[in-house]
């Protein structure tokens, strides 16, 4: 398939419903860390530069939300959720080259809880599905997701519901 990304990356909002993960039974935490959860996810496709810029922009918006709610958060380098074509792990050469940046929020009585994953997949998926630019250029893909159950738990456990209502103008 040929995709035109000459002016901007292609973006999709995934609204396919609940996500299911095979979480260890020992790590389950009702309403927070469970096998079924709801998420909001942006998926994007473009040139290397477009994908890196899109991931960083999405990440900045999640950080802005945390800052606006006065939540104690941190950025954590995450492991890639897909293997590279040659199955080799490489050291990033720059901050933008980090495959996954997770956002974790401190929740009293729980500790730091991952609420968002922001990944750059490189050409792993585009090459597997033979997706290229209309001019034959190689394309990258990425995604930025927010765990809605986890985000709400972080807001409630940090007693930030009034702050959220204020931000929403209610």
Shape: globular
Count of distinct strands: 10
Number of helices: 4
Order of helices and strands: EEEEEHEEEHEEHH
Task: Report the radius of gyration as a whole number of Å.
Answer: 17 Å
Q: Taking all residues together, what is the mean pLDDT?
A: 86
Largest sheet: 6 strands, antiparallel
Q: How are strands sequenced across the largest beta sheet?
A: 2-5-10-8-7-6
C-alpha end-to-end distance: 46 Å
Residue share in β-strands: 25-35%
Structural class given helices, strands, pairing? alpha+beta
Helix content: 25-40%
Uncertain runs with pLDDT below 50, 5 residues or more?
A: none
Short description:
By secondary structure, the chain is α+β, with helices and mostly antiparallel strands. The strands form three sheets. The protein has a six-stranded antiparallel beta sheet. Strands 1-9 form a two-stranded parallel sheet. A hairpin with a 3-residue loop joins strand 7 and strand 8.
């Amino acid at each position: 398939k040929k995709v035109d990304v000459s002016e901007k990356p292609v973006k999709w909002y995934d609204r396919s419903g609940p996500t299911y993960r095979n979480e260890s039974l020992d790590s389950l935490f009702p309403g927070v860390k469970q096998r079924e959860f709801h998420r909001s996810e942006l998926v994007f496709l473009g040139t290397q530069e477009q994908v890196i810029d899109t991931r960083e922009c999405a990440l900045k918006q999640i950080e802005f939300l945390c800052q606006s709610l006065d939540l104690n958060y941190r950025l954590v380098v995450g492991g890639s959720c897909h293997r590279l074509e040659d199955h080799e792990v490489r050291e990033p050469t720059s901050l933008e080259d980090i495959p996954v940046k997770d956002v974790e929020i401190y929740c009293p009585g729980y500790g730091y809880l991952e609420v968002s994953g922001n990944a750059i997949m490189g050409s792993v998926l585009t090459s597997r599905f033979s997706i290229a630019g209309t001019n034959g250029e190689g394309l990258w893909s990425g995604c930025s997701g927010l765990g809605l159950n986890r985000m709400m738990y972080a807001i409630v456990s940090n007693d930030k519901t009034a702050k959220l209502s204020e931000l929403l103008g209610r």
